[in-house]
Amino acid sequence: MKQNNFLYTLLKWPITATVFLFTSVLQADPPEIKPWFQQAVLLKSYQQSFDWRTPWEKREIRTQSGMALVVRLPVSVRISVSENGNNNNLYLLTTAEIVSDATLIEVTRKDIRSPFQAKLVLMDYAANLALLQINNSKFWRNLRPVKWTPVKSSTDHEAKDIYSLKIKSQDEWTMESGTIDRMAVGHREVSNAWFPLLRLNGISQSGQGYPLLQDNETAGMILDAGTGEAKAMPAAMLLEFLKHAGSNPYRSLAHRGFIWSRLPQSSTYNHFQIPPGKPGIWISRVLPYGTGSDVLMQGDYLTKLGKWTLSHDGKVEHPDWGISLFDLLFLAHLKVGDSVKLEVIREGKPVVLQTKVSAYEENSRPVPLKIVGRAPRYVIEGGFLFQELTLNYLRIWGTNWQTRAPMRLRLFLEQNKAVSIYENNKPDISSTGTKISSPDCFSVTSYS
User: What are the φ/ψ torsions at residue 243 (nearest 5 degrees)?
Assistant: First the structure.
């Protein structure tokens, strides 16, 4: 018995030591907090949107808080706006949601108590990104731009560990740890846009505009967080936004130019003259913008995007992220302006189409899905209020408007049609006349 105890004691130490060393390797020290005093600032916005029940009135002012990151535009691009009070071409990057419809934007540095007033320079609402400037040289003193680094693939276990800031007060800044769940394709309902996004676990105290840190380097920006989960825009997309910021007119991020679906059964393959079992996706609708919108047709069967073969689920073998939706190719491999070949089956014949990668376009719709930054357009005639049918209007039924709003309005919103009003006040789907509505028709409210 004593001999067994001796062996147990002898073996116990090296096993325990091994576990201890292994744990210490996995639990890396959090990034240093002090450098962020010169790279991130606190932000508070005062937002006032229109009341879509009575579109000539505004709602009460509400406030939102978050952060903004100090950034510098690439040397090749410069925004054609008024001087921003510094010689280093520095700006502040944050989310569009936190500054849209803002009547006042206040920014506070860690080392300066008094807030500075910021001005909105550029907003890409589809991508949820915004650029701010401050016309005060005192604010920019000793601030340094963030240095971006590409997100490391989560196929490496250690690369999953990430950090972000946790702000308890202006004086108390700490770090919050989490992990990368996956690189996904996020759908932004308010603009019907699809962009690569990081899904994170463990991040709940951070907020809009907070930095995402991986291996002590800035790999992205938090778009929203809560209940232990968060979404972040990867650095590659942020750099693309900053690169396009100086273009006139501004171009958004690279985007697909079509809506697609999987063919459900073999009989549909025969109907569209597609070889049985041929991997690919069916183009159900061509968008007025985005990659392939100029060459694709409804009913095309897309089998290859560049050198990547598509599966029945629209996935490709991504070099960094494994089996993923093809939209992730817009991270680094397909940039706006790049030439790309699309291989399709059209009316039973293989066709190779040549096009260029193109961006999302907000102005492609007569009326955006959601209107921000301007007043609603409406007409009062014969005791009726006519206004554009948008998500702004549908949301007067609450957050669960998808089930509470009248079905006819929800269905019209999906039809992507424009209604014109002629001088004799007869509505028609014709392309002539003055367009007053878009993705659907218009809403009518009686005031009799």
Answer: -65, -40
- In tens, the pLDDT along 227-274 reads 778 999 999 999 999 999 977 788 899 999 999 998 877 777 888 888
Domains 38-140 and 157-244 share a fold: yes
Q: Give the containing element (helix H, strand E) for 3.
A: helix 2-26
Output the CA–CA distances (angstroms, integers) from residue 248 to 77, 122, 152, 256, 352, in the order listed.
11, 12, 33, 22, 32
DSSP lists the bridge partners of residue 325 as 315
Q: Which CATH class is domain 258-360?
A: mainly beta
Query: Taking the domains of the chain in order of start, what are their residue ranges?
Result: 38-140, 157-244, 258-360, 365-446
CATH class of 38-140: mainly beta
Strand partners, 379: 386
> Taking a C-beta distance cutoff of 8 angstroms, is the pair 312, 279 a contact?
yes
Q: How many Cα atoms sit within 13 Å of 293 on the Cβ side? A: 18
pTM over 0.90, yes/no: no
| Cβ neighbours for 74, distance < 8 A, ≥ 6 positions apart | 242, 243, 246
pLDDT tens, position by position, 62-71: 999 999 999 9
Q: What Cα–Cα distance (Å) separates residue 107 from each residue in 75, 134, 136, 367?
A: 25, 9, 12, 32
What does the CA dihedral 55, 58, 63, 68 come to, rounded to 10 degrees?
Answer: 60
Which tokens hold the place of 160? 């999953």
Three-state secondary structure readout of 73-98? CCCCCCCCCCCCCCCCCEEEEECCCC
Q: Cα–Cα distances in Å, from 115 out to 70, 108, 321, 322?
A: 16, 5, 42, 45
Any idea what DSSP says for residue 291?
Answer: B
Q: What is the DSSP pairing of strand 90-94 with strand 102-108?
A: unpaired
Distance in angstroms (rounded) separating the CA atoms of residues 308 and 315: 9
Q: What is the CATH number of domain 157-244?
A: 2.40.10.10
